[in-house]
């Protein structure tokens, strides 16, 4: 700990700092709770996303071998994906949000393609959407977790270092100033006694 200035001005500065820390700490704790809840919420959404993707793969497993028929085709089963992203503000953190997703229909001739092509296109489009959602949710978790880490460090700094240090500094200054006051009173009494004793002789 640095050398403490044991003055009334420093005592006031330390009390002001303690009030600031104690006022700011609850806001940090609230932000930490909000971030923890939001991370849990997004992790739950990510788990649901993965369950949906797995269920979709299992559901299509019985006819997925039909894709072998399309192996010789030059045209893709689905066109390029188009997506629209925006940013949300969650507890002061900018996180990506998927607003819209669509896979372009390659425009098959219905008379030249097998009947299962429509279902295959829908499967590919849905899986692509789920993968994109998953990537967005993972980025949300990454950003929120990073902010949670920083906020937790600040809460610990205030709770375990700044506030206890301020309280200890205030205690030391008060003891020192109290000792000075006691010494001044004792000197005053001694001087008064000496003055009275000199006046009596």
The total of helices stands at 2
Oligomeric state of shown chains: single chain
Categorize the overall geometry: rod-shaped
Helix content: 55-70%
Uncertain stretches of 5 or more adjacent residues? none
Highest CATH level, the class: Mainly Alpha
Biggest sheet features: 2 strands, antiparallel
CATH architecture: Orthogonal Bundle
At CATH level 3, the topology is Helix Hairpins
Which structural class is indicated by helix and strand composition? mainly alpha
- Tally of distinct domains: 1
* Topology, number of strands: 2
Gyration radius over CA: 35 Å
Distinctive features:
201 residues; mainly alpha; Helix Hairpins; two-stranded antiparallel ribbon; 2 helices; 68% helix; rod-shaped
Write the layout of secondary structure elements.
Layout: H1 8-60, E1 81-90, E2 93-103, H2 117-200
Antiparallel strand pairs: 1-2
What does this 3D model show about the protein?
- It is a single chain.
- The protein is mainly alpha-helical and 201 residues long.
- The protein has a single domain (8-167), classed as Helix Hairpins (Orthogonal Bundle).
- It is 68% helix and 10% strand.
- It contains two helices and two strands.
- A two-stranded antiparallel ribbon has the order 1-2.
- A hairpin with a 2-residue loop joins strand 1 (81-90) and strand 2 (93-103).
- Helix 1 packs antiparallel against helix 2.
- The radius of gyration is 35 Å and the shape is rod-shaped.
């Amino acid at each position: 700990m640095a050398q403490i200035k044991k003055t009334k001005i420093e005592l006031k500065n330390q009390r002001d700092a303690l009030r600031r820390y104690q006022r700011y700490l609850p806001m940090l704790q609230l932000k930490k709770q909000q971030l923890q809840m939001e991370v849990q919420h997004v992790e739950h959404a990510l788990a649901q996303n993965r369950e949906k993707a797995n269920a979709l793969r299992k559901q299509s497993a019985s006819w997925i071998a039909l894709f072998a028929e399309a192996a010789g085709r030059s045209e893709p089963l689905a066109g390029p994906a188009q997506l629209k992203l925006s940013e949300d503000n969650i507890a002061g953190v900018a996180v990506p949000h998927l607003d819209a997703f669509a896979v372009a229909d390659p425009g098959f001739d219905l008379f030249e393609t097998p009947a299962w092509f429509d279902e295959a296109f829908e499967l590919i489009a849905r899986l692509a959407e789920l993968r994109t959602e998953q990537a967005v949710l993972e980025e949300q978790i990454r950003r929120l977790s990073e902010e949670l880490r920083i906020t937790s460090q600040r809460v610990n700094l205030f709770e375990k270092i700044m506030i206890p240090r301020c309280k200890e500094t205030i205690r030391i200054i008060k003891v020192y100033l109290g000792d000075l006051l006691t010494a001044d009173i004792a000197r005053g009494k001694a001087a008064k006694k000496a003055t009275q004793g000199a006046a009596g002789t």
